[in-house]
Amino acid sequence: MQIIRSAGEMxxxxxxxxxxxxxxxxxxxxxxxxxxxxxxxxxxKAQADLVVLTLFVNPTQFGPNEDLERYPRxxxxxxxxxxxxxxxxxxxxxxxxxxxxxxxxxxxxxxLSVGLCGGSRPVHFRxxxxxxxxxxxxxxxxxxxxxxxxxxxxxVIRRMxxxxxxxxxxxxxxxxxxxxxxxxxxxxxxLDAASRAVAPRLSQALFAARDAFAAGERDLExxxxxxxxxxxxxxxxxxxxxxxxxxxxxxxxxGVWQRPVLMALAVRFPGVRLIDNLTLKG
Amino acid sequence: MQIIRSAGEMxxxxxxxxxxxxxxxxxxxxxxxxxxxxxxxxxxKAQADLVVLTLFVNPTQFGPNEDLERYPRxxxxxxxxxxxxxxxxxxxxxxxxxxxxxxxxxxxxxxLSVGLCGGSRPVHFRxxxxxxxxxxxxxxxxxxxxxxxxxxxxxVIRRMxxxxxxxxxxxxxxxxxxxxxxxxxxxxxxLDAASRAVAPRLSQALFAARDAFAAGERDLExxxxxxxxxxxxxxxxxxxxxxxxxxxxxxxxxGVWQRPVLMALAVRFPGVRLIDNLTLKG
Lengths: 282, 282
What we know:
globular; homodimer; alpha/beta; 3-stranded antiparallel β-sheet; Pantoate--beta-alanine Ligase, Chain: A,domain 2; Rossmann fold; 10 helices; 2 domains; 6-stranded parallel β-sheet
């Protein structure tokens, strides 16, 4: 496995491999890899000749009071996991290889990115789209794999690919969960014991609504009520949002279920914000 | 010469040629071609194996009260000129091939695009960067050629290329002028007779300052005064702006000339806004 730190070297490698007709798969990450990330690597390997995993904790997608400094990091462990999974290139640039001091160009999205996490984190998706566009141009992938835990993110990225004509296929990887249902996230490490004890309630609440839906419940207010009922008191956390939105447009839905609905929620624990989601399909 | 109307077909062509190791040169235009555009085609031909000229009057770079509807168009003439210059592909998509009805992703630049034309045309550079990014992704050029008449535009595009890591070399083509010094522009056609009679004053004023600079004048306020003196009364036009800015950062400069200074001006004539510029180099 090759470890690349330089943006220019990464792009030269990618353009050369493209020139040889090789198919490149990309897995963008912020590191501190877990089984969720590794499942994305396996999807990428099945769809491409060469897999590039990028490891970059992107400062522009963190707001001023968020957890950029506390975001967990362990490069040696990440590199070993990549090597074991058969990653071809681990691209792990320092900040100054990614952003010039006078960086001034950003990508913005004005429809899908406004609500949900975009409401709680105003600059988040601007930062995500900007860095993903850069990573696409630096690694020249044919296919890029993103986790479906970040439900809004993958939809916003698909919109960027469509609207800007990136020649990249976006593939989603299903959420990977701990044994108790907690969606895997690098941030789980930062949960204190009391928060970790409450964390399984996020998925339990979503699963309860899914079970009610499977049993025939189609009233969205009832399904929403079922989620809130199981969530209960989240102390030491607090609900940031719970939204039922159209799975495609992310616009809020009301009344009776008619087409796929994304149930998405976020909970703020001390120093850690967790998200989870589930789509109600017919 | 191949004429392509479909975005998908354009991108497939470009990726296939790249896969064959061919070097692609791009000349983005809004059509109604003149000698300025053709000079860019010749530069592209000298630097690439294949030249793509794009013809698209981009609605997102026009403000609501600007001249989108009046922008001159003559496809048959443009196609004949491209053919005669040896253009390989003329990409002339209809609007709906470029923008989905619910298009929601834009590129913005926050430093170089704020003053000069960006001050007079608030959404202009957002539209320019968005469409140029799309054209880069659709035509996959190794090199792209832009006219230096649009002095701010080429600098903003270079910044986009740098900040987003587009693997594209940006080359500037010198301003091409009519016999009386008027910078060639597709919009010149829309000047009424009285405006056309005044139009040579733009370049005359810039040349007067250049002559004073060549004769040793280094006081920027005096050089600015010289431009205004020659511009005189522009009726039926009116000065939109005259700015002396650092040639690289586009920040206003004052006092004594120290490094390359861009003198840029815009004049509003009835229904037509003209721009011109000149760099004072040591």
